[in-house]
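Re: the 274-residue chain
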Amino acid sequence: MILAPGERALIALDVDGTVLREDGSLGDDTLREVRRVAALGHEVMIATGRSVSMTLPIVDRLGLTSSYVVCANGAIVLGRDPAAPVGYSPAFVETFDPTEVLTTIRGHLEGASFAVEDADGVFRFTGSFPEGALAASRQRVAFEELLHVQATRVVVISPDHAIEDFLAVVEQMGLHKVSYNVGWTAWLDIAPDGVNKATGLERVRAELGIPRDRVMVMGDGRNDIDMLGWAVEGGGFGIAMAQAPEEVLAAANERTASDLDDGVALALARHFQD
């Protein structure tokens, strides 16, 4: 990225499979480069599908004090707030009534588990979720208690389905009234209509007044496709991790090494000089 003296870039990083490796570890090179580029004055921030409570510890771990953080695949944008106990407070929140989508999916995926995240970051869930998969604030409830909650996100997992079968079922459902992304395994994230990481980041970019051609994003998952495409279309850099699925790689205009090989560090070192 070619920048004139004093110009700063907006750099948005996915968490799992990008900044963090699959086992949750953080490479020394990645940590060093993230901190170095932030110290140069660029806006280095997180854009993740994670809930607020599972995102802010990563922000702290990276040593970032960015103006904004995008969580819940764009449905929650946090703004820096030194007066808040956690250093951030909600700046933009998008919600929807999940009743129709929950009942539709339940009819197609027998045995699936469901969770609904509200604007306060509390998950209500039914069924079984892996330990650590949801936020610390979680409540097991009956399925009916998930309905009509004003949701920032719905999560569906169906371990009995192979990912290919799961994708086929999702396509059959025609979820045209909400935005959805499928994870590495049989995991479905559903956001308010038209909301994704790109829409959250566009809010941030506009607030900061950074031109689109000074945007760089990095990600590895299907929920990063919109974000990558947004960066590319604006004349910036959409960088996919080497291990990303083909459709994610296709949305990018640059590739870097895998999470295991500190691909984030390599891309930052390539584009930003001291």
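The chain has two domains: 10-93+195-271, 99-191.
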